[in-house]
Amino acid sequence: MDIDYDHNDAAAEPEVNPETRVGTGVINDVGNESTAQETKLTKAEKEEQEAVRRFGGDRTMELQSFPTAGVQGMAPGNRHELRNLDWSDTQAIAAWKKKYDVTEEILRDWQLELIAMGSQSTFTPTDGNTQQSDESDWLEEKQTAEEISLSLTSSDSQQRIGLGVGRFAGGMTTPASSRAHHRELELQWNCLQNTWIKHTNTPFPKLPATTKKWRTAIDYAPDLLMKLLETFEAPAYVLGSMTDAVLDQWTIVARKDCLVHCLQQFANQINDEEQQQWLLSCCEQVKAQAEEDPGALNLHPTELWSRLKKLKFGNMELLKLCRKKLLQQLTRLILASRIYGPELRQLRIDTDTAVPSTTIQYLDELFDALENRQPDRSVGWSSTRHTTTSKTGEIR
């Protein structure tokens, strides 16, 4: 049935409840928005609220349920772009500000809101009182999206910072508290600047940090950055602000260590003298490149990996992880073995074992913990690789 909205017919215009909330504004008894919220409204949001006041009736319910302004009014593609917006790209930021007629502060708030909404960002949030069924298809996805938001309490969190304990326990947060929680994590990380400047003159990567700042930090103070993440309450949140390229560059030396270790092990166990000499020669070439320029190190030359493939990688799972197609997986394993080292050491049966000092020792500790210290360590490597991927996936 078509509804003819007569704007001049006062009888057709319903009364507006003084407490009715629309978008982020509040309509008072004279039909004006609350002055406390007005400064945060965009032009599109004001037009939307004016439409609600003007039409009323079914149109009111429609606009309240399906907002056309702000984050809720964005198309899914635009949400994805805003969620991954690089704040160092001034041209992109200017384009967003012009497109939505908003300030940079509002854009940052929208991005935090989208991050908090996670994988369900294309859906309108349900009422907070809605009970989620145990059989819901979205339950597992919701938990996964919020695993990176670890629960914090004002007193307990301050006691745990620096201990590196308890960070495996994920905390569920509500959409209303996620933004405040993210800001609290940013504040806690930024407070570590005082510790940082005591050890280096390199600029501290204060959140939100640009890709350039992260690259500078990993180039000039990689060990210090790792130490801070080892003691920080929510390292996954900080790592989530880095790009894959930054993480890969940060771990290139550690990945070189893995490759050299595997090639040497392979050479020691192979009976073919010619192949043995070739493997040892490859080791020396990789180490020479690393000493000359670690940043330009090529760990995936086609000739090397084509020949290793014909040799079936010596049946070494760690060597398989060094392949280019598994680069990001190995990167995450290396970072997890270092950052979650305090927790992993608590799982060890032999508490007298020394603290790891090399990349291989850290990875051994990680795999031992995930395999529950199986007597035959050659068993279950394939499943371990799958398990470690899923368990360390939270750091991105």
TrEMBL record:
Q: What is this protein called?
A: Uncharacterized protein
Name the domain of life: Eukaryota
The organism's lineage is: Eukaryota, Sar, Stramenopiles, Oomycota, Peronosporomycetes
| Region annotated Disordered, chain positions | 1-25, 121-142, 376-396
Which ranges are annotated Basic and acidic residues under compositional bias?
1-10
Biased region (Polar residues) positions are 121-133, 380-396
